[in-house]
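My hope is that you will study the protein record below before we discuss the fold together.
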Amino acid sequence: GRSDRFERLWARVQVLLGEFTVTAHGYSPRLTLRPADELWSQVSRILEQLQAVGYQAFVNPGTLLGLVRDGGVIAHDDDIDLAVLLHADDEEAAAYEWLKLRRSRRGAGLLDTELDQRRTVHTKADSPDGLTLDLFPGWVNDEGRLYLFPYCYGDVTTDDVLPLNPIAVDGHTHVPGPARPEALLAANY
């Protein structure tokens, strides 16, 4: 109940952590310490690889929140979150397609193979410099509702997401985001 004491404690913790942050993933390098052009170049590479095999992907949830709220990544974040839109209209079709996509992308060297084999739902894209990119499956049902595991279960419409809207990230790079980011963020949080 003493926010002033917490703020002082948290400031000291930040100094001690230095270039690391503590998240649910453990101790990891802060995204904010990466040069923006290198960070978003890695993200663009993953997005292009997914697009080359017919999948749209966009920033979500923590990454989207940081871009909308702060104009960049959240200061204590350690990964990039991407939603991958599957060509499915229900849970069962999405599950089969997600497994198929993961197998094909694992074989193509896109996914962190060891981690991907342990995960049942979301996975991580492999980046040459250790950047962590979480990939989450999403699909639109035949009623035009978006399902995005585990954040949104039909809470927004297709019009809230599509067409994807480019979001400026470092002055010259854009990443795809939902058409109405605030609607998806409200469902996520």
